[in-house]
Every structure is written in structure tokens, then in C-alpha cells.
Amino acid sequence: MITAGQKPINEIIELVEPYKKLLILGCGTCVKTCFAGGEDEVAVLASALRLSFKKMARSIEIEELTIERQCENEFIQEASPGIARNDAILSLACGAGVQAMVKRFAKEVVLPGLNTTFIGIQENPGIFTEECSGCGDCSLAIFGGICPVTRCAKKLLNGPCGGSQKGFCEIDPDTQCAWHLIIERLTTLKQQDNLKTYIPPKNWNTSLSGGPRKLIREDHII
Amino acid sequence: MKTYSNLHEKLSMGEFAVTGECGPPRGASKEVIDKKINLLQGFVDAVNVTDNQTAIVRMSSIAASAHLVAAGLEPVMQMVVRDRNRIAIQSDIMGAYSLGIKNILCLSGDHQKFGSQPDAMNVFDIDSVNLIRTVRDMRDKGKDMSGFNLDVAPQMFIGAAANPFADPFEYRVIRLAKKIDAGADFIQTQCIYNMDRFKEWIRRADNEGLTEKVYILGGVTPLRSAGMARYMNNKVAGMDVPESIIKRMDGVDKKSQADEGIKICLETIEELKELKGVHGVHIMAIEWEEVVGQIVEQAGLK
Q1: How many domains does chain A have?
Q2: Are residues A52 and A81 in the same domain?
Q3: Which pLDDT score is estimated for B23?
Q4: Are residue A94 and residue A144 in the same domain, yes or no?
Q5: Interface of A with B in 175-194 (CB under 8 A)
Q6: Residue A222 lies in a domain
Q7: Which of B108, B145, B174 lies nearest to residue A161, judging by beta carbons?
Q8: Residues A102 and A187 in one domain
Q9: Taking Cα atoms as reference points, which of B173, B70, B166, B85 lies closest to residue B130?
Q10: Which of A88, A144, B45, B153 is the most buried (most CB within 10 A)?
Q11: How many CB atoms lie within 10 A of CB B173?
Q12: Chain B residues whose beta carbon lies within 8 Å of the beta carbon of residue A172
């Protein structure tokens, strides 16, 4: 999933302050799963904002709505009437969701309520970890299914640096050393030979270095 | 046999080599470099010039190395892949060689999180193994990474680092082999305080026939105080200072701790000299260059 966290309330207040009527628009898929932008978070944020504006003796009308996915046009449509009734939209979607809204409602103010963080998983209840950078050229097979591009702080492809200690990364004692995990996993799989394999420089062209990416599926183009 | 530098020549003759270290200043002062040159000249075969070590911004390693060249002291220019993409790396290698720099030490680099500007974006376009390979291919094939034939190919003696004290221990020899395959001619190790572990690492390297393929210079850093020993053990990533060394430093009064540190350093060098597969010593007297001459003389390396 794409993970995100809510922006600090003071930053959100600053963003929405100029508007009298605000639609807080939740997103019911990824960011709901990571407790940042589903119905519950929309409701809590709406209450907090109402209270804050009341304390500031300012009036604001807040409408709440959560749609299935802000990144897909067919779901976005559902928000149209609510959008028409308000001055601005505070989107609790990831950056892709916010920009999908911007593309669909070119004349409306769409504000981000979240900080989008990464593509990851919920490793333990309430703990999300980054697993994939979307580099566009997956080599998980050779690394036993653990991605050094994402999970090694130095993106090292040919083994751990000198800062790997007792299974943890030098940059943070709570972060596991990706290479330690790769070595353990390849040992379990009896694929230790992979450890000796020389990995050439990565082609970053399929990654963000090649500029904004586009995925084209000819068979689905109408 | 063709040798690429004085350091290479010394090692190729089977002599025990000594390298020192010079950290460039946090500023544009040539005087600081000159002062360190004066302290090291005549005592060492070459001097590593660090590349923004611990991710603290300093005078560039290339520029500081060029000052050493001008003074007649041979530099080992360190280069990290943290701050440069492959385009800058190759360009800097060509530039460095044109300035008379003939040794390079290829490193990943300390993560910027530890440095003075942790907000910086890191690069890590290629890793240290691929940096080694790039320098080797430029030198031996005369080509850059795109396969373009260079008019004059940089001819550098290629070094790499090894840390026998990092984990997982079993992998450390595989990594060494990978660096040798990539083209490393010499290895400088992390500071040795845990001699047992170092011996085990070199024994394993020797078993794999690796000590025949590469020159290994054991790293030493004289301790200035018991506090420093403790700090290095607890705070510096990949450093292993055994309790026995810390106790020994604690056991002498504060005024004599620096002398004790030098003594430990000399004992380490003595063991390294006798160890099969060790071809020299790399003395990293961090901001304490004035003791290098004394260590070299007392160790009988001059």
C-alpha cells in the first residue's frame, strides 16, 4: 500500500484558514489502512478543526465525505456535488489522489492534508515499513526477496557496508540491515551463491531519474 | 612489472608499507594541509586524503590531494559514492589523475545522517564495488562506463576498504573477494583493536587465496584517552574496541593515557608485521598527526 501520515494540525489550519466552506475528503483504500485518511480520520480531523476555529472565534463550515479511491476517476465522480457546495477541498489522500482530484476539478482548490511517505506494509500493528521504491526494474529474485535499493540506506547492491552491526543498520538501531536479512534469507534458501554474484551498476532510467514515468498499456487504450 | 605509484612500487617489492591520513580542513585553508604535510612527510609512503569524512563538509579530497602532490607527498585520494553520481565520479577521476594523483581509495561513504548536514540528499548511484570496477575499466580498458575510448586513461593504483569488525562476519571475506574481483589492488582495513577477530578474518582470506591477490594494509588508530576508546566502541559504527583495551586505558592515569594509546598501537603494528597476508599498516591518527612520526620510528618502519 501507499502509506501516509496526517500533517500537523497547525499546518492544516494554516492551509484551510482562507476558506469558509471546506470539504474534507477521505480516501478509503491505502491511507485508510494506515489510519491516515479513512472515514474515522476524516471525522476526527473535522472535529478538531471545528474546535480550533471556534477557539479562534472564526466560523468555518466543514463537510465530510470519504470515497473509495481518489486516484480513480470513477470514484472521484461521487464527490462532485460536495465539491460544488464548498470553497476548498482538503484531501486526505496520497499525493497521487490529490493530483487526480486536481486533474478532474481544474478550477477547484485542492489542499493536501497528508504527507505521503512510501510504498510499504504494516509489519506489526501500527508499525509500517517501507519495502519498495518503485524503481521500475525489480531484482528481488536475486536478493532472496529483500530489496536493497529500498531497504539499504546506501542502496548497496554488492553486499553490506562496514556499518552493519548485529543485524542492524548504522543509521538507526531500530532499522534492520537489509543485507543482513538478504544473507540470512539466501542462506535459508541455500542460494548463497547469489551473494558472490557481481551486480552491475543499476539502470536508474526506469526510476525517477528518467523523469516522470508513464505506464502505457496499448491493449487498454480506447 | 608496471607500477602505478610509489605506494604500489613499495608493496610490489615486498616491503612493509606505511600510509598515513590527512583530513582536509573545514574551510579553504591551504596552511592546514601544509601543516599536516610537514608532520607526515618522510615518515609514510603515502597519505590518505579523506573525502568529506563522517559526512561533514570539508575541502575536497581532490584539491587537498593536489596540494600533497605539489609538496611531493604521495596522496591516496579517497572517493565516496555518497555525493557523486557516475558522471561526476568518472569526471573527477580523470581530473584527479591529470593533477598527478595516482592512488585512489574507493568507498561507500558515511551516511549523511551522521554529518553536519543531515538534510542533504545522498546519491549512491553506484556502490563502492562498482566504483572500483569503474576505475579499473578506465585504467585497463581505457574506456569510461559508456564504453567510450578515453584519449588518456587514468592509471591509478586502486584501493578499497574492508571492515573485519562489521557483521555478518561470514560475509566479510566474500565481500573482500568481490572487491578484489572488481579490481582492488590494495585494501586498507578499519582500525584494529580486536586482534583475534582480525587474525581470524585474515586467516579466512588467506584460505581463499585472497592475500596473494591483493595487498592488505592493517588499519591502526592510536587512542588518546580511555574516553576515546569508549566512544569509538559505543558510537562509531563498525568499530570494535574490546573491553580489555578499554580497561587497559582506564588503568593508567589520565596524563599517561595518550602514551598508553601509542604503546597499544605499537604492539598492534608489531603483530601485524608478523602476520602472513598483511603487507603494511595504515596509521589513522585522527587530528593527531604529530604522533605519526614517533609511531613510525618506534615501530622500526623507517
Answers
A1: 2
A2: yes
A3: 96
A4: no
A5: 177, 179-180, 183
A6: no
A7: B108
A8: no
A9: B85
A10: B45
A11: 21
A12: 113
Same domain, A14 and A73: yes
**Is the pTM for the entire model greater than 0.90?**
yes
Domain carrying residue A167: 136-210
Could you tell me the domains of chain B? 6-223+277-292 (3.20.20.220)
Residue B254, min C-alpha distance to chain A (Å)? 30
Nearest CB partner across the interface for B125, out of A153, A171, A204 = A204
Using a CB-CB cut-off of 8 Å, the residues of chain A touching B113 are 153, 171-172
B168·A204 Cβ contact <8 A? no
Q: Does A162 contact B at CB distance below 8 Å?
A: yes
B263 phi-psi bin (left φ>0, alpha ψ -120 to 50, beta other):
alpha
- Sequence-distant (≥ 6) Cβ neighbours of residue B229 within 8 angstroms: B193, B223, B241, B245, B246, B249, B261
Model confidence at B256: pLDDT above 90:
yes
Residues A106 and A157 in one domain: no
Question: Is A210 an 8 Å CB contact of chain B?
Answer: no
Per-residue pLDDT 10s for chain A (222 aa) are: 999 999 999 999 999 999 999 999 999 999 999 999 999 999 999 999 999 999 999 999 999 999 999 999 999 999 999 999 999 999 999 999 999 999 999 999 999 999 999 999 999 999 999 999 999 999 999 999 999 999 999 999 999 999 998 999 999 989 999 999 999 999 999 999 999 999 999 999 999 888 999 999 999 998
With respect to residue A201, please indicate whether it lies within any of the assigned structural domains. Answer: yes
Are residues A10 and A84 located together in one domain of the fold? yes
Read off the pLDDT of residues B170-200 as tens digits, 9 standing for 90 and up: 999 999 999 999 999 999 999 999 999 999 9
Long-range contacts of residues B63-66, Cβ cutoff 8 Å, at least 24 apart: B63/B24, B64/B22, B64/B24, B64/B33, B65/B96, B65/B99, B65/B101, B66/B96, B66/B99, B66/B100, B66/B101
Predicted confidence band of residue B236 (pLDDT cuts 50, 70, 90): confident
Tell me if A162 and B238 make a contact (CB, 8 A cut-off).
yes
* Domain final residue pick, A118, A150, A181: A118
ipTM of the complex as predicted? 0.94
What's the confidence (pLDDT) of residue B246? 97
